[in-house]
Amino acid sequence: QVQLVESGGGLVQAGGSLRLSCAASGSITSINAMGWQRQAPGKQRELVATIASGGNTNYAGSAKGRFTVSRDSAKNTMYLQMNSLTPEDTAAYYCYADVDEVDVVVTILGQGTQVTVSS
User: Fold this and answer.
1) What digits encode the pLDDT tens for the residues 52-84?
2) DSSP letter string, 21-63
């Protein structure tokens, strides 16, 4: 079993920065890709950024140039550095991990951390 715990959310003014962390525990060696999703009130959950086990990254259009996803294997932790935040970035942010089971890939989701950007 893999468990994910996010931290680092909070209240920030527009133009500011936050760094989210996602600490993984359990069957770490079975983790493949990881990433971040977010869900704003009244909106569907959307993918923000992904990072493959080899380090390749992908970003949603709204995150490109402002957000950076990274992984520290030694600490079993993934990060999301968010710069130039706008009120439109206000959402609950969830980290996820694609975990290799015996014959299937299972997606594990963290409990979420709230990011609020004031104008």
Assistant:
1) 999 999 999 999 999 999 999 899 999 999 999
2) EEEEEESGGGEEEEEEEEE-TTS--EEEEEE-TTS-EEE-TTT
Output the pLDDT for position 57.
Answer: 98
Q: How far apart are CA 49 and CA 80, in angstroms?
A: 8
Half-sphere exposure (Cβ direction) of 104: Cα atoms closer than 13 Å? 3
DSSP-derived secondary structure letter, 66: T
How many beta carbons lie within 10 A of that of residue 44, not counting itself? 6
Residue 77: name the closest of 115, 31, 17 by CA. Answer: 31
Write phi, then psi, for 87 (nearest 5 degrees). Answer: -55, -25
Question: Which one-letter DSSP state was computed for residue 11?
Answer: E
Both tokens of residue 79? 């990060």
